[in-house]
Amino acid sequence: MKFGILVNEGPYQHQASDSAYQFAVAALAKGHEIYRVFFYNDGVNNANKLTEPPQDDRNITRQWSALAAEHNLDMVVCVAAGLRRGIKAEILAPGFNISGLGQLIQAGIEADRLVVFGD
Amino acid sequence: MSDTEAGEGGNRKVKRFMIVNRKAPYGTIYALEALEVVLIGAAFDQDVSLVFADDGVYQLKKGQQTKGIGQKNFSPSYRALGDYDIEKLYVERESLQARGLAPADLLVPVRVLGSAELSVLMDEQDVVLSF
């Protein structure tokens, strides 16, 4: 199956991003396709490469970047939601790209299922 | 599932998108940013409908005044949805009643549906985006 994933919450404060990541890992392991991961609302904060959690904690941003590198994931950060929160090209972690909300609608159109992770 | 229409650029997919609004208009940004998704969905010529449930019914409340909290009152935008051919607005009856509201308290004409009817409608969608 071809999945789209929407992440609407930032890292650490909320479990949504962790759950989305674990869902993506599990789906890929089962041979499914991830059409796109779209980051919206505070979810755009997942793309911040300046994120530096304590060493004994998971680095959520780096997890996403590594998954994207391994599976050639398309990870899109909403430009308007990003600008509002200071998420710009200069602080984007590897694998993330900035684009418009049209990319979310496109994911809804092209994917078999669009799964929302939020509050 | 999805219908396929012949658009100007060849085959164009139209899917049923339902945006579910569950949060109060202020206090969090969900309502405002969900509205952005609605407008882009319409710009992509998708079959977009909106549901207002839980505290989300307050998004449509008449007479919103936001001066005191220093935020923009974006509620007039709901009245402009018709200009984008978005005419399917559903409000959950139980949520409305639990808050002492009636359709006359709302900014726009809506269809009031019980949660059981809404769940049937939800099941018919291709994409459900919950905010």
How would you describe the overall organization of this protein?
The complex is a heterodimer of chains A (119) and B (131). Chain A has helices at residues 16-29, 60-71, 79-84, 102-110; strands at 2-7, 33-39, 75-78, 96-99, 113-117. With 119 residues, chain A is α/β, with parallel strands linked by helices. In chain A, strand 3, helix 3 (79-84) and strand 4 form a beta-alpha-beta unit. The two termini of chain A are 25 Å apart. The radius of gyration of chain B is 15 Å and the shape is globular. In chain B, the strands form 2 sheets. Chain B has a 5-stranded parallel sheet with strand order 6-5-4-3-7. A two-stranded antiparallel sheet of chain B has the order 1-2. Chain B is of the alpha/beta class. Chain B has one domain (3-130): Hypothetical Protein Ychn, Chain: A (3-Layer(aba) Sandwich), CATH 3.40.1260.10. The model of chain B is unreliable at 5-10 (pLDDT under 50). Chain B has helices spanning 30-43, 76-79, 93-98, 115-123, and strands at residues 3-7, 10-14, 16-21, 47-52, 88-92, 111-113, 127-130. Chain B has 4 helices and 7 strands. Helix content of chain B is 25%, strand content 26%. In chain B, a hairpin with a 2-residue loop joins strand 1 (3-7) and strand 2 (10-14). Classes of the chains: A alpha/beta (119), B alpha/beta (131). The interface between A and B is medium-sized, with 19 and 20 residues.
Q: Low-confidence stretches of chain B at least 5 residues in length (pLDDT < 50)?
A: 5-10
What's the structural domain tally of chain A?
1
Biggest β-sheet description of chain B? 5 strands, parallel
Fourth-tier CATH superfamily name of chain A = DsrEFH-like
Q: Shape of chain A from CA axes?
A: globular
Order of helices and strands of chain A: EHEHEHEHE
Number of strands of chain A: 5
